[in-house]
Amino acid sequence: MEKEENILGKEKIGKLIRKFSVPCIISLLVNSLYNIVDQIFIGWGVGYLGNGATNIVFPLTMVCLAFALMFGDGTSAYLSLRLGEKKEKEAGKGVGNGIAISIIVAVLLCAVTLIFLPQLLNLFGCTEALRNYALGYGYIIAIGLPFMMVGTTLNSIIRADGNPKYAMTSMVAGAVLNIILDPIFIFVLKMGVEGAAIATVISQIVTFAMNIMYIKKFKSIKIRKEEFKLKPSVIQKVSALGISSFITQISIVLVIAVENNLLGKYGANSKFGSEIPITVLGIVMKISQILNSIVIGIAAGSQPILGYNYGAGKFDRVKQTLKIVLGTSIIISTIAFILFQTIPDKLISIFGSGDSLYMEFACISFRIYLMLCICNGIQIPSGIFFQAIGKSAKSAILSLSRQILFLIPAMVILGELFGMKGFLYSGPFADGLAFIIAGILLIIEVKNLGKAKVNSQALVDNTSEENKLDKHIVITISREYGSGGRYVGRLIADKLGIKFYDKEIITKLADKTGLSEEYIESNEQKKETLVNLNNGYYFGLNNSDELFLKESELIKELSSKDSCVIIGRCADFILKDRKNVIKVFIYSNMEDKINRAIKFYKLDKEKAQKEITRIDKLRANHYKYYTQKKWNDHLNYDICINTAMLGVEKSAELVCDVINQEKAIL
């Protein structure tokens, strides 16, 4: 790990971006092309109605993909976290549960789709002219959903096991096979859309089989039958870690569903009819997804570079990385813009021929709907940049703004006001607004890089020569903000003559990781509510998770050497398997905490309660995220003390008295 951190902080930025971005781009492009190949062959072999049918069925696939990525990406993060904690058995349990729940949900979704396919197609905007094609294609695709879902889940896990080449090989093998089988089933066997669906399912089965075979080849863990026994707490954690991927995919499903229904409505009132707009917009969006895949791949590959250098305080490297990413993304977006504006007829012709109305609407759609696609070169990297540096709220706003906040309302409002043309202008409207917000947030963040400093006041280790304990004991103290818990801990350490660790951990952690003390102090023990929305593009652990793992290692190391008091940092959970640990929780009433915050932290009375509530919420989120337990649950602790009743001095004396009793000496 140290070697990788040194590379991230010293290697040439361009070389690093190429190293990390190329695999991301290839992976995302393969996924995009997988969806497009069917439409190309169907367009030539069946016609645009066949393509329209695939666009109607596509949201069903995306729903299943959302669950597959949630379990796959969530299990990958769980695997990496547990391996980082040196808990191979728990890591194996997470992988087994992730695979098992993916299989169960896949079978359920398959059954629901087969039973309710006609109703689901109506939900996604199916018209009578498209219905027979959509049913023929949809029933066969539904049979392949379990293979697609489990194969996708395993693909993410295999990548986290340190074998991205195998994961990519299995994915590419399926994509290539699909390209080979499509023309055979459509043109040679003349099976139409059903043939395309069969080709897709066979390809998914191949990827599934290759990934299933890998289960016995895991490098980091061993998977046994008992690992597949479902454990609700593990499934909950896996799902939470993967929720970002789920939300990203479901937002696409929501957009397509609204889009198809509105296109059918406004198209019916235009000269184009309902089927041409549904078909063409589906193709336009998938072509634009190729552009987005390249931009996302470039930005996602830069994440570890941005995250590490931001944490290490190397802001010049952060700016340089961001400059290269934005510059490259804008060039890609500009090339795409030129193609969309100049040769839309050539692009749509790749997917088969159509009548004059079909070609007319295709040209209008490319030129209007993707008018501001250049903005994607700023908006997408900006969201991923904020994700990389741990600004969860800003990243979530940028991730959701274009699709949910702007595009869907614009489709409805502009469509009602101006019909089909108004609907098409919803695309540049959403792109423009998302770009403005991204630009403003990005400019402010870049201007402030390196300016915000945290006054770290690391204390010197308290190593009294008069250790009054005759056994090795560790006291962990969790505390509400303003309760005086840190001071209680310091008093306990002084009275017992043992070491005290709070901000000293920050200094030691900075030495171990290369991250700055300011960054560590700003980000440790804090998890924003929106953090789970910001794991989507990581191909490994993010900076916060790496920080927690390094901190856990340090806490274990320090606590194994000497008796000591450790403040916060989930130390009670990290050391839960040790018998010589006494876990203390310090709390108080709000009035007492406000008075303490005013006196010792120099907060205004009006702001004190909000700050106390905010910090306690961050600590609770952090504790819940890494332990799956409630931070203030008394069952987690051996001693809980209300300092409003006893005061900090007597609270410290009480803990010392308990420890000094013969029965409490562990």
Structural summary, described in words:
- By secondary structure, the chain is mainly α.
- It has 23 helices and 5 strands.
- The protein is elongated and about 90 Å long.
- The N terminus is likely disordered.
Gist?
The protein has 23 helices and five strands. It is mostly helical and 666 residues long.
> Which radius of gyration do the C-alpha atoms yield?
28 Å
Our estimate of the beta-strand percent is under 5%
Query: Percent of residues in helical segments?
Result: over 70%
Number of helices: 23
The N- and C-terminal alpha carbons lie at a distance of 35 Å
Averaged pLDDT: 87
Globally, the shape reads: elongated
Low-pLDDT residue spans:
1-6, 453-463
Which structural class fits the helix and strand makeup?
mainly alpha
Output the strand order for the largest sheet: 2-3-1-4-5
Instruction: Characterize the main sheet.
Output: 5 strands, parallel
Secondary structure: elements and pairs:
Blueprint: H1 2-10, H2 13-45, H3 48-84, H4 88-123, H5 128-160, H6 164-188, H7 192-214, H8 232-241, H9 243-268, H10 275-311, H11 315-342, H12 344-349, H13 356-369, H14 376-388, H15 392-448, E1 474-479, H16 485-496, E2 499-501, H17 503-513, H18 517-523, H19 543-561, E3 564-567, H20 571-574, E4 581-587, H21 590-600, H22 605-627, E5 639-642, H23 643-660
Parallel strand pairs: 1-3, 1-4, 2-3, 4-5
Helix pairs in contact: 2-3, 2-6, 2-7, 2-10, 3-4, 3-5, 3-8, 3-9, 3-10, 4-5, 5-6, 5-7, 6-7, 9-10, 9-15, 10-11, 10-13, 10-14, 11-14, 14-15, 16-23, 17-19, 21-22
